[in-house]
Design goal:
The complex is a heterodimer of chains A (276) and B (120). Chain A is of the alpha/beta class. Chain A is built from 10 helices and 12 strands. Chain A has a 9-stranded mixed sheet, with helices on both faces. In chain A, strands 3-4 form a two-stranded antiparallel sheet. Chain A starts with 13 loop residues before the first strand and ends with a helix. The N terminus of chain A is likely disordered. Chain B has a domain of 77 residues: hypothetical protein PF0899 fold (2-Layer Sandwich). Chain B contains 2 helices and 6 strands, in the order αβαβββββ. In chain B, the strands form 2 sheets. Chain B has a 3-stranded mixed sheet with strand order 2-1-6, with helices on one face. In chain B, strand 1, helix 2 and strand 2 form a beta-alpha-beta unit. In chain B, helix 1 crosses helix 2. Chain B starts with a helix and ends in a 9-residue tail after the last strand. The C terminus of chain B is likely disordered. Classes of the chains: A alpha/beta (276), B alpha+beta (120). Chains A and B meet through helix 1, strand 3, strand 4, strand 5 and helix 2 of A and helix 1, strand 1, strand 5 and strand 6 of B.
């Protein structure tokens, strides 16, 4: 259980659009209305029917798609909507996840310096509070939307859709979603992204992938960040690579340091391949 | 503690289903989850029982079932496990996670005090 976040209310988050884009600086997003078609779809999707046992007790079973009715159905539908929107706009969308302080924002800053505006980039960044990350990224000139989640420890598809609504409709080809720093909760919420990219800092333990498999499994790439600190921190890169491969055999592994610039070429080349 | 968000979604669905099917009180709720669903069963149980107060599921017991994942060992081959292991339980060699699901679903409910006991 996360101790540094107590996500209680999923409906209270704030979108802080890029002031440069001419939007009000502090817009409160209300939950979407869910029309009558919504609950109807549930009933059909679930395939519910009753059984009566010999002792008279009644139970109902769902024979939905995969032997039940999905609990995060609402998020999944919103994620699929996002995915369709991103596809229609030919947007490459990367969901960046890591524990707090692994260097997501610094990497993004360096990435934007190299790519934007040759490749039109935009960023949606999530944190519990403050607009510090958005402010750190804005000098790049790329539009940046900050989502402050209040107490919620992850971004969900609805927050992303509300944030994306405030971004310019033209000129964006690559959208980075910097998730809330957390290796547990974001794993359960599909945002509609094209790929998930996980950062593992050389100041963390090499076995993090084995401790938090859901977030690493299925990642398109795992970036071992802060490699300039690997030696002083006693971080064994080979051991980390081994752990990543055990959980995410398909993931490309890139070692980099945003501070020294080592490995950034490999990261940029991955982005170029994904954009191609 | 995203289990609070998950419990919220779970209860929302149960309340909707209850309205559709006329359920008044639930005694059990079965949930199936993939190994990669990212749910900590104890945390889900805790948040569910706290949040279910005042709903049809107030007295319901949450029964959680894990859908196994597929693991592979270079020496011993492939097998299914219901929890994460990264050392082969047979030979101790490195184990690779091959396939596991992120699904999280309600597979059934049991009603308390069924209004009629249809003994046909």
């Amino acid at each position: 259980m996360c101790e540094n976040c107590g996500c209680a209310n999923n409906d209270h988050f704030h979108v802080h659009p890029d002031p440069g884009a001419g939007h009000p600086p502090h817009e409160h997003h209300e939950p979407h209305e869910q029309g009558p078609a919504h609950s109807h779809a549930h009933a059909e999707a679930g395939g519910w029917h009753a059984h009566t046992a010999a002792d008279g007790s009644v139970s109902w079973h769902s024979h939905g798609g995969h032997g039940g009715q999905p609990v995060l159905d609402a998020n999944q539908r919103e994620a699929e909507r996002n995915r369709g929107y991103f596809r229609a706009r030919d947007l490459l969308v990367l969901n960046l996840v890591s524990s707090p302080g692994a260097g997501k924002t610094t990497l993004l800053r360096k990435t934007l310096e190299r790519l934007h505006p040759q490749v039109g980039c935009a960023v949606v960044v999530g944190d519990l509070e403050t607009q510090a990350d958005a402010e750190a990224l804005r000098p790049s000139g790329a539009p940046v939307v900050q989502i402050t989640t209040g107490t919620v420890c992850h971004l969900d598809a609805r927050m992303v859709s509300a944030a994306v609504d405030t971004l310019p409709k033209e000129g964006v080809r690559l959208l980075f979603i910097e998730n809330v720093g957390n290796l547990v909760c974001p794993a359960s919420f599909d945002l509609g992204e094209s790929h998930r990219i996980v950062l593992l800092a050389a100041t963390e333990g090499e076995n993090k992938p084995l401790k938090y498999p859901p977030i690493f499994h299925g990642a398109r790439a795992v970036l071992i960040s802060k490699t300039d600190l690997a030696e002083p921190a006693g971080f064994d890169l080979a051991l980390a690579r081994e752990a990543i491969t055990q959980v995410a055999p398909q993931a490309e592994i890139i070692e980099l340091s945003s501070r020294t610039g080592a490995g950034l070429d490999a990261w940029i080349s991955l982005l170029e391949r994904l954009l191609a | 503690m995203h289990e609070v968000a998950i419990s919220e979604a779970l209860l929302e669905q149960l309340v909707t289903l209850a309205g559709q099917h006329g359920w008044t009180r639930l005694s059990r709720v079965w949930v199936r989850m993939g190994l990669l669903s990212g749910v900590v069963p104890e945390a889900l149980e805790f948040s569910f029982s706290a949040m279910a107060v005042g709903t049809v599921a107030e007295e319901a017991e949450l029964v959680m079932e894990t859908i196994p994942g597929r693991f592979g060992c270079g020496a011993c081959g492939e097998f299914d496990l219901e929890r994460f292991e990264f050392a082969c339980p047979q030979c101790g060699g490195p184990l690779q996670l091959l396939k596991a699901g992120r699904e999280l679903m309600i597979s059934g409910v049991e009603l308390m005090d069924s209004p009629t006991h249809p003994e046909t």
